[in-house]
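PROTEIN DESIGN WORKSHEET
SECTION A - STRUCTURE
LENGTH: 52
TOKENS:
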């Protein structure tokens, strides 16, 4: 249960962080390179400390 809640909170924080990071530029370049954002998101959860 605790692990599930932790992963839930982590995923939520990750989505918020990605929205803050990519949301600004994503709105303008989302049509141009959507695959770029998608490829960047899955690699970030593996090393959250480096990003922070």
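SECTION B - SEQUENCE
RESIDUE ASSIGNMENT:
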């Amino acid at each position: 249960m605790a692990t599930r809640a932790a992963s839930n909170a982590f995923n939520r924080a990750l989505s918020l962080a990605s929205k803050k990071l990519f949301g600004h530029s994503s709105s303008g370049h989302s049509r141009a390179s959507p695959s770029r954002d998608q490829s960047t998101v899955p690699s970030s959860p593996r090393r959250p400390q480096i990003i922070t």
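SECTION C - NOTES
The chain has three helices and no strands.
The two ends are 26 Å apart (CA to CA).
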